Amino acid sequence: MKWNYNIDCKIKFVLSLLFGGLVFLYWYRYYPHHLHYQEQLQLFLFTVDYLEMKIAHPGGVAEYIAEFLTQFFVYAWVGAIVIAVTLVIIQLLMNGFAKKLNALDFWYPLSFLPSVCLWIFLCDQNALLALPVSILLTLSVLLIWVRLTRTWVRIAYAIFIIPVLYWMVGGVYFIFVLGLVGCSFIRGRQTMKSFYSFLFVCVCILLAILCPLLAKDLVQYSLLRLIFGIDYYRYPMVFPSIMLLAMAAPAIVPWIQKSLPMIRKHALLWISFEFLILLLGAFYAIRKSSNPELEEALKYDYLTRMGRWEQIIQSAEKAAPESPLAVTCLNLALARTGQLGDRMFHFYQNGTEGLIPRFNRDFTTPLPASEVFYYLGMINASQHYTFEAMEAIPDHKKSGRAYVRLAETNLINGQYEVAAKYLKTLRYAPFYRRWAINAMSYLYNEEKIERHPEWGWLRKIRYTEDFLFSETEMDAMLGLLFQHNMRNRMAFDYLLAYVLQKKDLKHFMEYYPLGEKIAYDHIPLSYQEALAFVWIQKYPDFQGIPWPISESVLKGMTDFIHIYSTLENPEPILRSRYGKTYWYYLLYRK
Protein backbone atom coordinates (compact mmCIF):
# COMPACT_ATOMS: atom_id res chain seq x y z
CA MET A 1 0.00 0.00 0.00
CA LYS A 2 1.46 3.36 -1.04
CA TRP A 3 1.29 6.29 1.33
CA ASN A 4 -0.40 9.46 0.07
CA TYR A 5 2.21 12.23 0.06
CA ASN A 6 -0.39 15.02 0.08
CA ILE A 7 -1.42 16.15 3.53
CA ASP A 8 -5.18 16.32 3.90
CA CYS A 9 -6.69 19.82 4.17
CA LYS A 10 -8.41 18.88 7.41
CA ILE A 11 -5.07 17.91 8.93
CA LYS A 12 -3.56 21.22 7.81
CA PHE A 13 -6.48 23.06 9.37
CA VAL A 14 -6.04 21.22 12.66
CA LEU A 15 -2.29 21.91 12.67
CA SER A 16 -2.85 25.63 12.04
CA LEU A 17 -5.50 25.67 14.75
CA LEU A 18 -3.14 23.97 17.21
CA PHE A 19 -0.40 26.46 16.34
CA GLY A 20 -2.78 29.36 16.93
CA GLY A 21 -3.81 27.83 20.24
CA LEU A 22 -0.20 27.59 21.39
CA VAL A 23 0.42 31.22 20.42
CA PHE A 24 -2.70 32.32 22.29
CA LEU A 25 -1.81 30.39 25.45
CA TYR A 26 1.72 31.74 25.45
CA TRP A 27 0.67 35.38 25.28
CA TYR A 28 -2.36 35.07 27.51
CA ARG A 29 -0.94 32.85 30.26
CA TYR A 30 2.84 33.35 30.16
CA TYR A 31 3.49 36.78 28.65
CA PRO A 32 0.33 38.90 29.10
CA HIS A 33 1.98 41.95 30.65
CA HIS A 34 4.21 42.48 27.64
CA LEU A 35 0.92 43.13 25.82
CA HIS A 36 -0.15 45.69 28.43
CA TYR A 37 3.28 47.28 28.13
CA GLN A 38 2.86 47.72 24.37
CA GLU A 39 -0.57 49.30 24.81
CA GLN A 40 0.61 51.92 27.29
CA LEU A 41 3.39 53.16 24.99
CA GLN A 42 1.07 54.43 22.27
CA LEU A 43 -2.06 56.55 21.97
CA PHE A 44 -4.21 55.57 19.01
CA LEU A 45 -6.63 58.30 17.96
CA PHE A 46 -9.68 58.01 15.72
CA THR A 47 -9.11 61.28 13.90
CA VAL A 48 -8.41 62.25 10.30
CA ASP A 49 -5.32 64.18 11.39
CA TYR A 50 -3.88 61.11 13.11
CA LEU A 51 -4.51 58.96 10.04
CA GLU A 52 -2.89 61.55 7.77
CA MET A 53 0.12 61.74 10.08
CA LYS A 54 0.58 57.98 9.95
CA ILE A 55 0.20 57.47 6.21
CA ALA A 56 2.59 60.35 5.47
CA HIS A 57 5.61 58.02 5.51
CA PRO A 58 6.44 54.56 4.09
CA GLY A 59 4.94 51.80 6.23
CA GLY A 60 2.43 54.15 7.79
CA VAL A 61 -0.65 52.19 6.68
CA ALA A 62 0.64 49.02 8.35
CA GLU A 63 1.62 51.03 11.42
CA TYR A 64 -1.87 52.54 11.63
CA ILE A 65 -3.47 49.08 11.45
CA ALA A 66 -0.98 47.72 13.99
CA GLU A 67 -1.66 50.56 16.44
CA PHE A 68 -5.40 50.07 15.98
CA LEU A 69 -4.95 46.41 16.97
CA THR A 70 -2.46 47.17 19.76
CA GLN A 71 -4.96 49.40 21.57
CA PHE A 72 -6.94 46.21 22.30
CA PHE A 73 -3.94 44.87 24.24
CA VAL A 74 -5.44 46.62 27.26
CA TYR A 75 -7.17 43.23 27.56
CA ALA A 76 -4.49 40.54 27.47
CA TRP A 77 -6.84 37.88 26.11
CA VAL A 78 -7.79 40.08 23.14
CA GLY A 79 -4.12 40.85 22.49
CA ALA A 80 -3.31 37.14 22.55
CA ILE A 81 -6.08 36.47 20.01
CA VAL A 82 -4.81 39.28 17.75
CA ILE A 83 -1.27 37.89 17.69
CA ALA A 84 -2.46 34.30 17.28
CA VAL A 85 -4.77 35.12 14.37
CA THR A 86 -2.10 37.27 12.67
CA LEU A 87 0.54 34.55 12.86
CA VAL A 88 -1.87 31.83 11.71
CA ILE A 89 -2.97 33.90 8.70
CA ILE A 90 0.68 34.47 7.77
CA GLN A 91 1.28 30.71 7.98
CA LEU A 92 -1.74 30.01 5.77
CA LEU A 93 -0.61 32.61 3.23
CA MET A 94 2.87 31.07 3.22
CA ASN A 95 1.40 27.66 2.50
CA GLY A 96 -0.86 29.13 -0.19
CA PHE A 97 2.07 30.73 -1.99
CA ALA A 98 4.16 27.54 -1.68
CA LYS A 99 1.31 25.56 -3.27
CA LYS A 100 1.25 28.04 -6.17
CA LEU A 101 4.95 27.25 -6.64
CA ASN A 102 4.03 23.54 -6.74
CA ALA A 103 5.95 22.89 -3.53
CA LEU A 104 5.48 19.41 -2.11
CA ASP A 105 3.28 18.84 0.93
CA PHE A 106 6.18 16.77 2.21
CA TRP A 107 7.78 20.07 3.30
CA TYR A 108 4.55 21.62 4.60
CA PRO A 109 5.95 22.05 8.18
CA LEU A 110 8.33 24.72 6.83
CA SER A 111 5.35 27.02 6.21
CA PHE A 112 5.22 27.58 9.99
CA LEU A 113 8.81 28.86 10.12
CA PRO A 114 8.15 32.57 9.27
CA SER A 115 5.37 32.75 11.88
CA VAL A 116 7.67 31.16 14.47
CA CYS A 117 10.35 33.78 13.65
CA LEU A 118 7.78 36.54 14.15
CA TRP A 119 6.71 34.95 17.44
CA ILE A 120 10.32 35.04 18.64
CA PHE A 121 10.66 38.63 17.43
CA LEU A 122 7.56 39.76 19.35
CA CYS A 123 9.04 38.40 22.59
CA ASP A 124 11.24 41.50 22.54
CA GLN A 125 9.41 44.22 24.48
CA ASN A 126 10.51 46.76 21.85
CA ALA A 127 9.23 44.74 18.88
CA LEU A 128 6.16 46.29 17.29
CA LEU A 129 3.15 44.62 15.73
CA ALA A 130 3.70 46.63 12.54
CA LEU A 131 6.16 44.01 11.22
CA PRO A 132 3.73 41.03 11.31
CA VAL A 133 0.97 43.24 9.91
CA SER A 134 3.27 44.42 7.10
CA ILE A 135 4.24 40.86 6.22
CA LEU A 136 0.59 39.78 6.24
CA LEU A 137 -0.37 42.59 3.86
CA THR A 138 2.60 41.87 1.59
CA LEU A 139 1.84 38.15 1.34
CA SER A 140 -1.81 38.93 0.61
CA VAL A 141 -0.82 41.24 -2.26
CA LEU A 142 1.63 38.63 -3.57
CA LEU A 143 -0.98 35.87 -3.50
CA ILE A 144 -3.41 38.09 -5.42
CA TRP A 145 -0.75 38.70 -8.09
CA VAL A 146 0.02 34.99 -8.39
CA ARG A 147 -3.65 34.17 -8.91
CA LEU A 148 -4.02 36.61 -11.84
CA THR A 149 -4.16 34.79 -15.17
CA ARG A 150 -4.04 37.48 -17.84
CA THR A 151 -0.51 38.64 -18.62
CA TRP A 152 -1.31 42.32 -19.15
CA VAL A 153 -3.28 42.42 -15.88
CA ARG A 154 -0.35 40.88 -14.01
CA ILE A 155 2.06 43.42 -15.53
CA ALA A 156 -0.16 46.41 -14.80
CA TYR A 157 -0.93 45.17 -11.29
CA ALA A 158 2.76 44.67 -10.46
CA ILE A 159 3.92 48.06 -11.75
CA PHE A 160 1.10 49.82 -9.91
CA ILE A 161 1.31 47.88 -6.66
CA ILE A 162 5.09 48.01 -6.01
CA PRO A 163 5.22 51.74 -5.06
CA VAL A 164 1.81 51.54 -3.38
CA LEU A 165 2.85 48.50 -1.37
CA TYR A 166 6.12 50.14 -0.39
CA TRP A 167 4.25 53.14 0.97
CA MET A 168 1.81 50.86 2.79
CA VAL A 169 4.22 48.43 4.48
CA GLY A 170 7.74 49.83 4.19
CA GLY A 171 10.81 47.65 3.90
CA VAL A 172 9.14 44.22 3.70
CA TYR A 173 7.78 45.06 0.23
CA PHE A 174 10.87 43.25 -1.03
CA ILE A 175 9.04 39.96 -0.22
CA PHE A 176 6.59 40.78 -3.00
CA VAL A 177 9.37 41.83 -5.37
CA LEU A 178 11.36 38.62 -4.82
CA GLY A 179 8.23 36.49 -5.21
CA LEU A 180 7.37 38.34 -8.41
CA VAL A 181 10.89 37.86 -9.79
CA GLY A 182 10.97 34.14 -9.09
CA CYS A 183 7.49 33.46 -10.45
CA SER A 184 8.18 35.52 -13.60
CA PHE A 185 11.30 33.54 -14.45
CA ILE A 186 9.47 30.26 -13.90
CA ARG A 187 6.53 31.33 -16.04
CA GLY A 188 8.87 32.75 -18.69
CA ARG A 189 10.63 29.40 -19.11
CA GLN A 190 7.33 27.56 -19.23
CA THR A 191 5.90 29.82 -21.96
CA MET A 192 9.19 30.24 -23.87
CA LYS A 193 9.08 34.01 -23.30
CA SER A 194 12.18 34.35 -21.17
CA PHE A 195 13.27 37.64 -22.76
CA TYR A 196 9.98 39.40 -22.04
CA SER A 197 9.93 37.98 -18.53
CA PHE A 198 13.47 39.23 -18.01
CA LEU A 199 12.50 42.70 -19.27
CA PHE A 200 9.46 42.77 -16.98
CA VAL A 201 11.59 41.67 -14.01
CA CYS A 202 14.17 44.40 -14.72
CA VAL A 203 11.45 47.06 -14.78
CA CYS A 204 10.03 45.79 -11.46
CA ILE A 205 13.46 45.63 -9.77
CA LEU A 206 14.31 49.14 -10.99
CA LEU A 207 10.98 50.41 -9.69
CA ALA A 208 11.57 48.68 -6.34
CA ILE A 209 15.03 50.25 -6.02
CA LEU A 210 13.68 53.70 -6.85
CA CYS A 211 10.99 53.54 -4.12
CA PRO A 212 13.22 54.19 -1.07
CA LEU A 213 15.49 56.52 -3.07
CA LEU A 214 12.60 58.74 -4.08
CA ALA A 215 11.03 58.50 -0.62
CA LYS A 216 14.22 59.93 0.87
CA ASP A 217 13.42 63.25 -0.80
CA LEU A 218 9.86 63.22 0.50
CA VAL A 219 10.28 62.32 4.18
CA GLN A 220 12.84 63.06 6.90
CA TYR A 221 14.21 59.55 7.40
CA SER A 222 17.59 58.03 6.67
CA LEU A 223 17.93 55.76 3.64
CA LEU A 224 18.77 52.83 5.93
CA ARG A 225 15.45 53.15 7.78
CA LEU A 226 13.58 53.59 4.50
CA ILE A 227 15.07 50.31 3.29
CA PHE A 228 14.73 48.22 6.46
CA GLY A 229 11.54 49.76 7.80
CA ILE A 230 10.61 52.67 10.04
CA ASP A 231 7.98 51.24 12.39
CA TYR A 232 9.04 47.67 13.04
CA TYR A 233 11.14 48.31 16.15
CA ARG A 234 10.81 50.91 18.89
CA TYR A 235 14.42 52.11 18.72
CA PRO A 236 15.31 53.94 15.50
CA MET A 237 18.38 52.65 13.64
CA VAL A 238 18.34 49.40 15.62
CA PHE A 239 17.75 46.29 13.52
CA PRO A 240 17.98 43.13 15.69
CA SER A 241 19.07 39.97 13.94
CA ILE A 242 15.78 38.21 14.72
CA MET A 243 13.91 41.08 13.07
CA LEU A 244 15.98 40.72 9.89
CA LEU A 245 15.45 36.94 10.00
CA ALA A 246 11.68 37.42 10.43
CA MET A 247 11.70 39.72 7.40
CA ALA A 248 13.78 37.34 5.28
CA ALA A 249 11.99 34.08 6.15
CA PRO A 250 8.76 34.76 4.17
CA ALA A 251 10.83 35.60 1.09
CA ILE A 252 13.06 32.53 1.29
CA VAL A 253 11.07 29.65 2.82
CA PRO A 254 8.61 29.04 -0.10
CA TRP A 255 11.49 28.69 -2.54
CA ILE A 256 13.21 26.26 -0.20
CA GLN A 257 9.99 24.25 -0.05
CA LYS A 258 9.82 24.23 -3.84
CA SER A 259 13.44 23.20 -4.37
CA LEU A 260 13.68 20.44 -1.77
CA PRO A 261 13.14 16.92 -3.14
CA MET A 262 10.77 14.25 -1.91
CA ILE A 263 12.17 11.61 0.45
CA ARG A 264 10.03 8.63 -0.49
CA LYS A 265 11.53 6.12 1.87
CA HIS A 266 9.85 6.35 5.29
CA ALA A 267 8.12 9.56 4.19
CA LEU A 268 5.63 9.62 7.06
CA LEU A 269 8.47 9.24 9.53
CA TRP A 270 10.39 12.08 7.90
CA ILE A 271 7.40 14.44 8.02
CA SER A 272 6.90 13.59 11.68
CA PHE A 273 10.58 14.28 12.23
CA GLU A 274 10.20 17.68 10.51
CA PHE A 275 7.39 18.67 12.86
CA LEU A 276 9.35 17.46 15.87
CA ILE A 277 12.46 19.45 14.92
CA LEU A 278 10.36 22.56 14.24
CA LEU A 279 8.53 22.17 17.55
CA LEU A 280 11.67 21.62 19.61
CA GLY A 281 13.55 24.40 17.83
CA ALA A 282 10.66 26.82 18.29
CA PHE A 283 10.33 25.89 21.98
CA TYR A 284 14.04 26.42 22.57
CA ALA A 285 14.21 29.72 20.66
CA ILE A 286 11.08 31.17 22.27
CA ARG A 287 12.27 30.16 25.72
CA LYS A 288 15.66 31.81 25.10
CA SER A 289 13.96 34.95 23.78
CA SER A 290 11.53 35.22 26.69
CA ASN A 291 12.42 37.30 29.72
CA PRO A 292 10.48 36.06 32.79
CA GLU A 293 12.16 38.61 35.08
CA LEU A 294 11.03 41.49 32.88
CA GLU A 295 7.55 39.98 32.58
CA GLU A 296 7.35 39.88 36.39
CA ALA A 297 8.40 43.53 36.65
CA LEU A 298 5.85 44.51 33.99
CA LYS A 299 3.19 42.57 35.89
CA TYR A 300 3.84 44.60 39.04
CA ASP A 301 3.86 47.82 37.03
CA TYR A 302 0.54 46.93 35.38
CA LEU A 303 -1.11 45.99 38.68
CA THR A 304 0.13 49.30 40.14
CA ARG A 305 -1.34 51.20 37.21
CA MET A 306 -4.67 49.45 37.83
CA GLY A 307 -4.49 50.00 41.61
CA ARG A 308 -4.73 46.28 42.42
CA TRP A 309 -2.84 46.50 45.69
CA GLU A 310 -3.99 43.24 47.27
CA GLN A 311 -3.14 41.32 44.10
CA ILE A 312 0.39 42.78 44.19
CA ILE A 313 0.89 41.63 47.78
CA GLN A 314 -0.53 38.19 47.05
CA SER A 315 1.88 37.77 44.14
CA ALA A 316 4.81 38.83 46.34
CA GLU A 317 3.79 36.34 49.03
CA LYS A 318 4.07 33.53 46.48
CA ALA A 319 7.49 34.68 45.23
CA ALA A 320 9.14 37.83 46.56
CA PRO A 321 10.17 40.14 43.69
CA GLU A 322 13.77 41.31 43.41
CA SER A 323 13.79 43.67 40.45
CA PRO A 324 13.92 47.34 41.52
CA LEU A 325 10.77 48.21 39.59
CA ALA A 326 8.76 45.36 41.15
CA VAL A 327 10.01 46.18 44.66
CA THR A 328 8.91 49.80 44.18
CA CYS A 329 5.42 48.63 43.21
CA LEU A 330 5.26 46.20 46.14
CA ASN A 331 6.23 48.86 48.66
CA LEU A 332 3.61 51.20 47.24
CA ALA A 333 0.99 48.45 47.56
CA LEU A 334 2.02 47.86 51.19
CA ALA A 335 1.73 51.58 51.89
CA ARG A 336 -1.64 51.89 50.17
CA THR A 337 -3.01 49.05 52.32
CA GLY A 338 -1.43 50.37 55.53
CA GLN A 339 1.08 47.51 55.81
CA LEU A 340 4.39 49.16 54.91
CA GLY A 341 5.57 49.66 58.50
CA ASP A 342 4.64 46.12 59.47
CA ARG A 343 5.69 44.06 56.46
CA MET A 344 8.28 45.83 54.31
CA PHE A 345 11.14 43.65 55.59
CA HIS A 346 9.12 40.49 55.08
CA PHE A 347 10.14 40.93 51.45
CA TYR A 348 13.40 41.63 49.66
CA GLN A 349 14.44 45.29 49.89
CA ASN A 350 17.12 46.89 47.75
CA GLY A 351 17.48 50.08 49.76
CA THR A 352 15.86 53.42 49.14
CA GLU A 353 15.76 52.75 45.38
CA GLY A 354 13.00 50.25 46.13
CA LEU A 355 10.93 52.97 47.77
CA ILE A 356 11.42 55.98 45.50
CA PRO A 357 13.71 55.28 42.53
CA ARG A 358 15.96 58.06 41.35
CA PHE A 359 15.09 59.63 38.05
CA ASN A 360 16.50 57.84 35.00
CA ARG A 361 16.22 59.26 31.52
CA ASP A 362 14.27 56.37 30.05
CA PHE A 363 10.62 55.61 29.39
CA THR A 364 10.11 52.79 31.88
CA THR A 365 11.51 53.36 35.38
CA PRO A 366 10.08 56.89 35.92
CA LEU A 367 6.51 55.57 35.64
CA PRO A 368 6.45 53.50 38.88
CA ALA A 369 8.22 56.38 40.65
CA SER A 370 5.55 58.76 39.36
CA GLU A 371 2.89 56.47 40.84
CA VAL A 372 4.61 56.70 44.25
CA PHE A 373 4.81 60.49 44.06
CA TYR A 374 1.18 60.71 42.97
CA TYR A 375 -0.24 58.74 45.89
CA LEU A 376 2.07 60.45 48.35
CA GLY A 377 0.73 63.83 47.26
CA MET A 378 3.88 65.02 45.47
CA ILE A 379 1.79 65.96 42.46
CA ASN A 380 4.37 68.12 40.66
CA ALA A 381 7.03 65.42 40.96
CA SER A 382 4.59 62.83 39.60
CA GLN A 383 3.78 65.11 36.69
CA HIS A 384 7.45 65.72 35.97
CA TYR A 385 8.37 62.01 35.98
CA THR A 386 5.37 61.08 33.84
CA PHE A 387 6.04 63.75 31.23
CA GLU A 388 9.74 62.90 31.00
CA ALA A 389 8.96 59.19 30.64
CA MET A 390 6.59 59.88 27.75
CA GLU A 391 9.02 62.20 26.00
CA ALA A 392 11.75 59.55 26.29
CA ILE A 393 9.80 56.97 24.24
CA PRO A 394 12.29 56.25 21.42
CA ASP A 395 9.82 56.27 18.53
CA HIS A 396 8.32 59.56 19.79
CA LYS A 397 4.83 58.19 20.29
CA LYS A 398 2.55 59.49 22.99
CA SER A 399 1.34 57.33 25.85
CA GLY A 400 -2.26 56.77 26.85
CA ARG A 401 -1.20 55.99 30.42
CA ALA A 402 0.88 59.16 30.61
CA TYR A 403 -1.90 61.33 29.16
CA VAL A 404 -4.31 60.11 31.84
CA ARG A 405 -1.88 60.86 34.65
CA LEU A 406 -0.95 64.28 33.22
CA ALA A 407 -4.63 65.17 32.98
CA GLU A 408 -5.13 64.12 36.61
CA THR A 409 -2.17 66.05 37.99
CA ASN A 410 -3.23 69.21 36.19
CA LEU A 411 -6.79 68.84 37.44
CA ILE A 412 -5.53 68.45 41.01
CA ASN A 413 -3.26 71.49 40.62
CA GLY A 414 -6.06 73.56 39.13
CA GLN A 415 -4.27 73.92 35.78
CA TYR A 416 -7.50 73.45 33.88
CA GLU A 417 -6.38 74.68 30.47
CA VAL A 418 -3.53 72.17 30.39
CA ALA A 419 -5.79 69.40 31.71
CA ALA A 420 -8.33 70.20 29.00
CA LYS A 421 -5.65 69.76 26.33
CA TYR A 422 -4.97 66.19 27.43
CA LEU A 423 -8.63 65.34 27.99
CA LYS A 424 -9.73 66.63 24.58
CA THR A 425 -7.13 64.39 22.96
CA LEU A 426 -8.15 61.37 25.04
CA ARG A 427 -11.74 61.76 23.82
CA TYR A 428 -10.58 60.40 20.46
CA ALA A 429 -8.85 57.36 21.98
CA PRO A 430 -11.50 54.59 22.09
CA PHE A 431 -10.39 52.97 25.35
CA TYR A 432 -9.93 56.29 27.16
CA ARG A 433 -12.92 58.16 25.75
CA ARG A 434 -15.41 57.41 28.55
CA TRP A 435 -12.91 58.28 31.27
CA ALA A 436 -11.95 61.52 29.49
CA ILE A 437 -15.56 62.66 29.04
CA ASN A 438 -16.24 62.06 32.72
CA ALA A 439 -13.03 63.85 33.76
CA MET A 440 -13.95 66.87 31.63
CA SER A 441 -16.94 67.45 33.89
CA TYR A 442 -14.45 68.36 36.65
CA LEU A 443 -12.86 71.18 34.68
CA TYR A 444 -13.25 74.53 36.49
CA ASN A 445 -15.42 72.82 39.10
CA GLU A 446 -13.61 73.24 42.40
CA GLU A 447 -16.39 71.79 44.53
CA LYS A 448 -16.68 68.64 42.44
CA ILE A 449 -12.93 68.03 42.59
CA GLU A 450 -12.99 68.50 46.36
CA ARG A 451 -15.66 65.79 46.58
CA HIS A 452 -13.72 63.36 44.40
CA PRO A 453 -12.50 60.51 46.68
CA GLU A 454 -8.98 60.53 45.23
CA TRP A 455 -8.36 63.93 43.65
CA GLY A 456 -9.95 65.79 46.55
CA TRP A 457 -7.70 64.04 49.09
CA LEU A 458 -4.57 64.56 47.00
CA ARG A 459 -5.41 68.24 46.61
CA LYS A 460 -5.50 68.53 50.43
CA ILE A 461 -2.17 66.79 51.07
CA ARG A 462 -0.09 68.14 48.15
CA TYR A 463 2.58 70.77 48.58
CA THR A 464 1.14 74.28 48.37
CA GLU A 465 4.35 76.30 48.76
CA ASP A 466 7.18 76.61 46.25
CA PHE A 467 10.58 75.21 47.19
CA LEU A 468 13.53 73.49 45.53
CA PHE A 469 12.72 69.79 45.21
CA SER A 470 15.76 67.53 45.78
CA GLU A 471 15.64 63.80 45.22
CA THR A 472 19.00 63.44 47.05
CA GLU A 473 17.30 64.68 50.25
CA MET A 474 14.12 62.68 49.95
CA ASP A 475 13.68 62.30 53.71
CA ALA A 476 13.51 66.10 54.00
CA MET A 477 10.97 66.23 51.13
CA LEU A 478 8.83 63.58 52.84
CA GLY A 479 9.13 65.41 56.15
CA LEU A 480 7.88 68.65 54.62
CA LEU A 481 5.02 66.78 52.98
CA PHE A 482 3.97 65.20 56.27
CA GLN A 483 4.22 68.46 58.18
CA HIS A 484 1.98 70.10 55.58
CA ASN A 485 -0.80 67.63 56.44
CA MET A 486 -0.23 65.31 59.39
CA ARG A 487 -3.15 63.12 58.36
CA ASN A 488 -1.01 61.91 55.46
CA ARG A 489 -0.05 58.56 57.02
CA MET A 490 1.50 57.33 53.79
CA ALA A 491 3.99 60.22 53.82
CA PHE A 492 4.97 59.35 57.40
CA ASP A 493 5.34 55.64 56.59
CA TYR A 494 7.53 56.47 53.61
CA LEU A 495 9.57 58.90 55.70
CA LEU A 496 10.39 56.25 58.33
CA ALA A 497 10.80 53.51 55.72
CA TYR A 498 13.25 55.74 53.84
CA VAL A 499 15.56 56.34 56.80
CA LEU A 500 15.27 52.71 57.95
CA GLN A 501 16.26 51.40 54.53
CA LYS A 502 19.02 54.00 54.44
CA LYS A 503 20.15 52.55 57.82
CA ASP A 504 19.96 56.03 59.29
CA LEU A 505 18.77 55.27 62.82
CA LYS A 506 19.75 58.71 64.08
CA HIS A 507 17.16 60.40 61.87
CA PHE A 508 14.70 57.59 62.52
CA MET A 509 14.74 58.47 66.21
CA GLU A 510 14.25 62.15 65.33
CA TYR A 511 11.33 61.50 62.98
CA TYR A 512 9.55 58.79 64.96
CA PRO A 513 7.95 61.16 67.55
CA LEU A 514 6.27 63.05 64.67
CA GLY A 515 3.91 60.11 64.31
CA GLU A 516 2.10 60.76 67.58
CA LYS A 517 -0.81 62.24 65.64
CA ILE A 518 -1.09 59.17 63.42
CA ALA A 519 -3.88 56.92 64.70
CA TYR A 520 -1.92 53.65 64.79
CA ASP A 521 -3.60 50.85 66.71
CA HIS A 522 -0.10 49.48 67.38
CA ILE A 523 3.49 50.42 66.65
CA PRO A 524 4.29 48.90 63.23
CA LEU A 525 6.58 45.89 63.48
CA SER A 526 9.61 47.32 61.68
CA TYR A 527 9.48 50.41 63.89
CA GLN A 528 9.38 48.18 66.97
CA GLU A 529 12.42 46.29 65.73
CA ALA A 530 14.32 49.52 65.06
CA LEU A 531 13.40 50.95 68.48
CA ALA A 532 14.47 47.75 70.24
CA PHE A 533 17.78 47.77 68.36
CA VAL A 534 18.48 51.40 69.28
CA TRP A 535 17.61 50.77 72.94
CA ILE A 536 19.81 47.72 73.32
CA GLN A 537 22.82 49.66 72.03
CA LYS A 538 22.70 51.81 75.18
CA TYR A 539 21.20 49.58 77.86
CA PRO A 540 21.97 46.01 79.01
CA ASP A 541 18.33 44.90 78.90
CA PHE A 542 14.85 46.14 78.08
CA GLN A 543 13.96 47.20 81.57
CA GLY A 544 12.36 50.64 81.44
CA ILE A 545 11.96 50.77 77.66
CA PRO A 546 9.48 53.63 77.03
CA TRP A 547 7.66 52.22 73.99
CA PRO A 548 4.93 49.54 74.01
CA ILE A 549 6.96 46.91 72.14
CA SER A 550 5.60 43.37 71.98
CA GLU A 551 7.19 40.56 73.99
CA SER A 552 7.86 38.57 70.81
CA VAL A 553 9.96 41.41 69.40
CA LEU A 554 11.93 41.82 72.64
CA LYS A 555 12.53 38.08 72.87
CA GLY A 556 13.56 37.97 69.22
CA MET A 557 16.00 40.86 69.72
CA THR A 558 17.59 39.08 72.67
CA ASP A 559 17.92 35.83 70.72
CA PHE A 560 19.29 37.67 67.67
CA ILE A 561 22.01 39.36 69.75
CA HIS A 562 22.95 36.09 71.45
CA ILE A 563 23.39 34.25 68.13
CA TYR A 564 25.21 37.19 66.55
CA SER A 565 27.69 37.54 69.43
CA THR A 566 28.38 33.86 70.17
CA LEU A 567 28.62 32.10 66.81
CA GLU A 568 31.64 32.45 64.54
CA ASN A 569 29.47 32.52 61.38
CA PRO A 570 25.98 33.55 62.53
CA GLU A 571 24.63 34.75 59.16
CA PRO A 572 23.09 31.44 57.90
CA ILE A 573 21.13 30.76 61.08
CA LEU A 574 20.10 34.41 61.44
CA ARG A 575 18.90 34.39 57.84
CA SER A 576 16.76 31.31 58.45
CA ARG A 577 15.27 32.64 61.71
CA TYR A 578 15.30 36.41 61.28
CA GLY A 579 15.69 37.01 57.55
CA LYS A 580 12.39 38.93 57.53
CA THR A 581 13.38 41.39 60.26
CA TYR A 582 14.88 44.85 60.17
CA TRP A 583 17.82 43.55 62.24
CA TYR A 584 18.92 41.19 59.49
CA TYR A 585 18.48 43.91 56.85
CA LEU A 586 20.48 46.36 58.97
CA LEU A 587 23.47 44.07 59.52
CA TYR A 588 23.61 41.99 56.36
CA ARG A 589 21.89 43.72 53.46
CA LYS A 590 24.22 45.94 51.48
Explain the overall architecture.
The protein has 590 residues and is mainly alpha-helical. It is built from 31 helices and no strands. The chain has helices at 9-30, 32-40, 48-54, 60-70, 76-100, 113-122, 130-147, 151-169, 174-191, 194-215, 223-228, 241-259, 267-289, 292-306, 309-318, 324-336, 340-343, 366-376, 379-391, 400-413, 416-426, 433-440, 446-451, 455-461, 474-484, 489-501, 505-511, 525-536, 551-566, 571-578, 582-588. α29 packs antiparallel against α30. The N and C termini lie far apart (73 Å). The mean pLDDT is 91.
- Which structural category do the helix and sheet elements fall into? mainly alpha
What is the percentage of strand-forming residues? under 5%
What is the distance, rounded to the nearest whole angstrom, between the alpha carbons of the first and last residues?
73 Å
- Can you count the helices? 31
What is the tally of beta strands?
Answer: 0
| Overall 3D shape | elongated
The unreliable regions are none
Percent of residues in helical segments? 55-70%
Global Rg? 31 Å
The description of the largest β-sheet is: none
Mean pLDDT over all positions: 91
List keywords for this structure.
590 residues, 31 helices, 0% strand
